[in-house]
Amino acid sequence: MAGVLALVVVLAGAAVWLLREPAAPGSIAGAGLTIALGEDGGIALASGAADAPVVELWVDYACPHCRMFHQESGEGLAQMAADGDAQVVVRPVSVFAGAGEPDAGNSLRAGSAALCAAEYGSAAAWTAYNDRLFTEQPMQGDPGFEADRLVAWGQEAGIDDPAFAGCVSEGRYTDELAVYTQEAITRWGSFGTPTVAVEGEQVSGSGGALPTLEQIREAAGGTPV
């Protein structure tokens, strides 16, 4: 499956947001950024601009194309949220759950851990953890994302709530990931991760390629840089 876009997706669901503290000054996310975990599995990063356009991003942490997209645009998207130019909603899914081991387990453990990090961490800690998950992404077909390492990376990112370790170890959001993935398929039909939408409209690059940060900014009504 290497080099192939993974199939995904999601239904719009009611969102009850659990707001946590702003990111620490000097973090990649920027001062004033908040994180909120919705009942629909969306991890929302924003800086209080309620009327800012919504940029949604569906990712699977075992997906090589998601890692590539994060390397190219992840920091820029976090900065858009910090600057109030967008409300960025990251939606973990597990399109590799049906791929067989070890890829299925890698996908499910990392996706669940990312949701645990959003539940128990600050915006700064979550963005650092999100970075770490993509940095440490194992090669397809290789084992990785063991629970003890997922816990340790969260602690290193600044997640100090002791409940985080239990959340990761028990795979609290594993079942929900299957629901979020099916909801996404229902919403969009077959498509690949990562998928980006601005104000509910999918954004793609030329010829169906991954969108660039500039294209996302333009779709959100901003000025490309």
UniProtKB/TrEMBL annotation:
The answer to keyword Cytoplasm applying to this record is: no
Q: Which domain of life is it from?
A: Bacteria
> What InterPro entries does the record tag this protein with?
Thioredoxin-like_fold, Thioredoxin-like_sf
Residues in a coiled coil are none
Which segments constitute the Thioredoxin-like fold domain?
46-205
- CDD domains, per this entry? DsbA_family
Q: What is this protein called?
A: Protein-disulfide isomerase
Q: What is the lineage of its organism?
A: Bacteria, Bacillati, Actinomycetota, Actinomycetes, Streptosporangiales
